[in-house]
Design goal:
Length: 153
Amino acid sequence: MPWSRMLLLIVAGIAVIALTACGRSDQSHSGEKQNEPPTKGENSGGIVAGKIVPSITIGKEQAIFKLKNQTEHIKKFKFATDPAYSIEITDNTGKVVFEKTVAINDKAIKLKQAEETSFEFKLPDQLQKGTYTIQASLNSNPEIQVKKEWHKT
């Protein structure tokens, strides 16, 4: 009887240790990343503290310059110069083929958390097929710029 009781206690102890180890979620298994911030280039899908995210969307006849507040604070942009924003398009040799500055009535833009604003402009008709780079700049303090390459077909 004592051997069977001893064997029962050993099996029960091993079972408790095994079940405790299986339930732990703070260890990484098979190379999984856990509780690590996203690396550069990864999108966490949430608010990125301290970032105003500029983007350009290019259509057939127009482009849209957007700014999105991905911070936890309200951001205010005061315009440093009279034109609020400017657009520059260069061809694949670096030659400027289109330039435009736009003034707006407001002297500042205020963006709440996760809010965005956009500026639309018509693309020039005279652009031939080819590869171009478009740069949009918000002439504010701080200045915000974004560049994008695209192929006009």
